[in-house]
Amino acid sequence: MIYSPTIITREELPSIAKVLEEFLRKIRECELKLNSPEIQNQFEKETDVAKKRKFLDERTDLSILRVKLETAILEKIAARLKCLEQDLKEGIEGLNQAINDVENTVNILTTIKNVTGIIARILVI
């Protein structure tokens, strides 16, 4: 294996969330295809009843497990949101106040940075 002297920064690596979202998107695409008329018709023509049943069971399992995966992800985010709820609430209130004081652009930039920092901690970016 040849190692490249190029250094890859953390920002250049895809985040886990992006990778996961891409997998979920691809799974959803497969689900749509599995529910398409073309696939449906092909399995309806199938004379092997066990194969038909297996298709329906496997297709259902794929959908159920995708939803469980999405739910698990949301539960983790929800737990982090609960821990940082007060900070986020105060940050948003501060941002609204900064926005109302439109003349103080430095304060607006600072409070935006504070709120995005809290959100990043919730999402673990």
From TrEMBL:
Protein name: Uncharacterized protein
Gene source species: Chlorogloeopsis fritschii PCC 6912
